[in-house]
Automatic annotation (TrEMBL):
It comes from Croceicoccus marinus. Its EC number is 6.3.4.4. Plays an important role in the de novo pathway of purine nucleotide biosynthesis. Catalyzes the first committed step in the biosynthesis of AMP from IMP. This is Adenylosuccinate synthetase. Binds 1 Mg(2+) ion per subunit. It is found in: Cytoplasm. GTP binds at residues 12-18, 40-42, 304, 330-332, 412-414. IMP binds at D13, E14, G15, K16, N38, A39, G40, H41, T129, R143, Q223, T238, R302. SUPFAM superfamilies: P-loop containing nucleoside triphosphate hydrolases (SSF52540). Keywords: Cytoplasm, GTP-binding, Ligase, Magnesium, Metal-binding, Nucleotide-binding, Purine biosynthesis. Homodimer.
Length: 429
């Protein structure tokens, strides 16, 4: 198992950035396989903080970084992120960075539609990141997307642009919006094309070569399993499959390549955007978790909703995604609580449930059943071995592990790369 696939096992924001960065320093290639620039991965290396939305985290360590076909790519966001990182001293060139040439593009018309829909939905809005992710994936499966490889053939793009504009103009008219400025769109694509094309290639081929050479590949998931378009809290989800299996289809490597599946799990629960959240705390405790955990979205700056750890949800995510082991993050946020609670089941219409139902209304109505544990007074921040942890914190970790039926592989105790307790090395498994 030379490869590792990292996925979020909750609603995203589990602290994947740090873990991916830590693993990336030991990988030979890092691949993003779904999502787009809706992700927010924060990496802290020494005194420098890097905030990535689209680029694979390996880019910071100079590791070969690849954007797979499963991603939706906003070319202008790409350029801005590359420029921002370059200004921070990161080297990005066609040697260490590649984009799948069959990757669909996010265009300004997708962002427009995302915004129009959310504004029209009122209280029923999804709370998207407003980046055009959903509309871009719709055009992909609707078979009218403009893809990276099309940028090399702009002179023959007219029929595709016409089809795309016809679709979007009908939708825009429904919102009372002006039609797409077709000429402006083509001019913008013409201008950005050479920039994107310098990185474009059939990445499946490059990855095949990398794999044949015995290199270690790290697949970097974005968002979390509970935002998966099939398995998440539908319709309050993102528009891609965030589960581990997507690493194969979203990169052009087969299912046998995904290796050790590392599920990133926060020691409590957070969510941004709308949708069900059984253990949400709209009280002082929730406020305290948010403040101590600095729970504000990396991409949108929105305040995250906070609640106790939900073992039912994480057990389900681990099963659905075939998680081999978890990385438990932000344990220190629970330091100093007199007692801590874990959700071990739900009550719905008088019945006890050991899983999260599929129906949105049932998801919204389940009541958490809690188990309460004694907390710990000492700090866990910066711990690098079990011996550095208070006994109660170890008990909490053990109970989590038991309830989610998945072993702990890593415990992360601060945003710093080295503040990690390694139980089981995913690359050596
Ligand atoms: P979209 O991905 O922008 O369409 O947003 C759909 C839902 O996914 C919203 O609830 C967003 O807040 C959520 N979401 C998207 N990306 C992330 C992420 O990286 N972390 C956490 N939530 C996300």
């Amino acid at each position: 198992m030379a490869n590792v696939t990292v996925i979020g096992a909750q609603w995203g924001d589990e602290g994947k950035g740090k873990i991916v960065d830590w693993l990336a320093s030991r990988a030979d290639a890092v691949v993003r396989f779904q999502g787009g620039h809706n992700a927010g991965h924060t990496l802290v290396v020494g005194d420098v903080t890097y905030k990535l939305s689209l680029l694979p985290s390996g880019i910071v360590t100079g590791t070969l970084s690849i954007i797979g076909n499963g991603v939706v790519l906003d070319p202008w966001a790409l350029k801005a992120e590359v420029e921002k990182l370059t200004a921070q001293g990161v080297t990005i060139n066609p040697e260490n960075f590649a984009i799948a040439d069959n990757c669909p593009l996010i265009l300004p018309l997708h962002r427009d539609l995302d915004g129009l829909r959310e504004a029209a939905a009122g209280a029923g809005k999804i709370g998207t990141t407003g980046r055009g992710i959903g509309p871009a994936y719709e055009d992909k499966v609707g078979r009218r997307a403009i893809r990276v490889c099309d940028l090399a053939h702009l002179d023959s793009l007219d029929p595709q642009i016409d089809r795309l504009c016809a679709h979007h103009n009908a939708l825009r008219a429904g919102f009372g919006e002006d039609p797409v400025n077709r000429e402006q769109l083509l001019a913008d694509l013409r201008e950005i094309a050479p920039y994107v094309l310098q990185f474009a290639q059939p990445v499946w081929k490059r990855l095949k070569k990398v794999r044949k050479a015995g290199a270690k590949i790290l697949f970097e998931g974005a968002q979390g399993v509970l935002l998966d378009v099939d398995h998440g809290t539908y319709p309050f989800v993102t528009s891609s499959n965030t589960v581990s299996g997507t690493a194969a289809s979203g990169s052009g490597l087969g299912p046998s390549s995904t290796g050790f599946v590392l599920g990133i799990v926060k020691a409590y629960t957070t969510r941004v955007g709308s949708g069900p959240f059984p253990t949400e705390l709209n009280d002082e405790t929730g406020q305290k978790l948010g403040e101590r955990g600095h729970e504000f979205g990396t991409v949108t700056g929105r305040k995250r909703r906070c609640g106790w750890f939900d073992a039912v949800l994480v057990r389900q995510s681990c099963a659905i995604s075939g998680v081999t082991g978890i990385a438990l993050t932000k344990l220190d946020v629970l330091d100093g609580f007199e007692t801590v609670k874990i959700c071990t089941g739900y009550r719905l219409d008088g019945k006890i449930m050991d899983y999260f139902p599929s129906h949105a209304q049932e998801q919204a109505r389940v009541e958490p059943i809690y188990e309460e544990m004694e907390g710990w007074r000492e700090t866990t921040a910066g711990a690098r071995s079990w011996a550095d942890l208070p006994a109660q914190a170890i008990k909490y970790i053990q109970r989590v592990q038991e309830l989610i039926e998945t072993p702990v592989a890593l415990v992360s105790t601060s945003p710093e790369r080295e503040d990690t307790i390694l139980v089981r090395d995913p690359f050596m498994d």
